[in-house]
TrEMBL record:
The species this protein was found in: Prosthecochloris ethylica
Record-linked CDD domains: Ribosomal_L25_TL5_CTC
Name by which UniProt lists this protein: Large ribosomal subunit protein bL25
HAMAP family: Ribosomal_bL25_CTC (MF_01334)
Record flagged with keyword Zinc: no
Domain (Large ribosomal subunit protein bL25 beta) ranges: 100-185
Function description: This is one of the proteins that binds to the 5S RNA in the ribosome where it forms part of the central protuberance.
Subunit record text: Part of the 50S ribosomal subunit; part of the 5S rRNA/L5/L18/L25 subcomplex. Contacts the 5S rRNA. Binds to the 5S rRNA independently of L5 and L18.
NCBIfam families xref list: bL25_bact_ctc, PRK05618.3-2
Gene coding for it: rplY
Listed PANTHER family: RIBOSOMAL PROTEIN L25/GLN-TRNA SYNTHETASE, ANTI-CODON-BINDING DOMAIN-CONTAINING PROTEIN, RIBOSOMAL PROTEIN L25_GLN-TRNA SYNTHETASE, ANTI-CODON-BINDING DOMAIN-CONTAINING PROTEIN
Family label: Belongs to the bacterial ribosomal protein bL25 family. CTC subfamily.
Domain Large ribosomal subunit protein bL25 L25: residue ranges: 6-91
Transferase is among the record's keywords: no
One GO location term (cellular component): ribosome
Length: 202
């Protein structure tokens, strides 16, 4: 997984600080790690926005004004309900060899029989939570749908083992659907019309 450097600075937690930071083009954030006190930091809003909307996940080197840096993951982001801009972020420090959980974007490839027959692929999840060591975390997960027929749905528990390569595991419920091949609307309507009517009860 690619590493990105993100300059940060310590901040106080006064009542009006968050608003003042945002007026300066910065976003308040918190960094946590098990066994350590939470650290309150400020991040450049533009740099954070690019990171949040990147198509891949990254390891983030948080670089402090004194020259020290620590590896982290972006764990949570809060958006303004009106402007949709990032207003707060949570990061998590991690150590070498530590087992982590993180969300990774998922993409779907392949043109299976269902698509050839006129079906439409519907991505039901756009990211998956995985567990593993930092060195084994992929930037994104690619899942092949070339075997899927009309009406098929793939669940987390049905993801082929070669996708993980034994390097990480999925933490979601096995029966959670992730992608389906929808039957064309016209064909679905015709199937409904052809279905036999239920006999009326006397």
């Amino acid at each position: 997984m690619e590493t990105i450097v993100l300059a940060v600075e310590p901040r106080n937690c006064s009542k009006n600080e968050a608003k003042a930071l945002r007026n300066e083009g910065k976003v308040p954030a918190v960094v946590y790690h098990k066994g350590e006190e939470n650290m309150h930091i400020a991040v450049n809003a533009i740099a954070l926005d690019k990171l949040v909307h990147a198509p891949e996940s990254h390891i983030i080197n948080l670089e402090f004004p004194d020259g020290n840096s620590r590896r982290s993951l972006l764990k949570d982001v809060q958006f303004d309900p009106v402007s949709d801009s990032v207003i707060h972020a949570d990061f998590q420090f991690f150590a070498a060899g530590e087992v982590l959980e993180m969300e990774v974007p998922v993409t779907f490839t392949g043109k299976g029989p269902g698509i050839v027959a006129g079906g439409k692929m519907q991505a039901l999840l756009h990211s998956l939570t995985i567990k593993g060591s930092p060195s084994n975390m992929p930037q994104q997960i690619s899942i092949d749908t070339s075997h899927m027929e009309l009406g098929d749905t793939m669940h987390i528990g049905e993801i082929p083992e070669e996708v993980t390569g034994g390097k990480f595991e999925f933490t979601g419920e096995p029966d959670t659907p992730i992608v389906s091949i929808a039957v064309p609307k016209k064909e679905a309507e015709e199937t409904e019309e052809e279905a036999p009517e239920e006999p009326e009860s006397e």
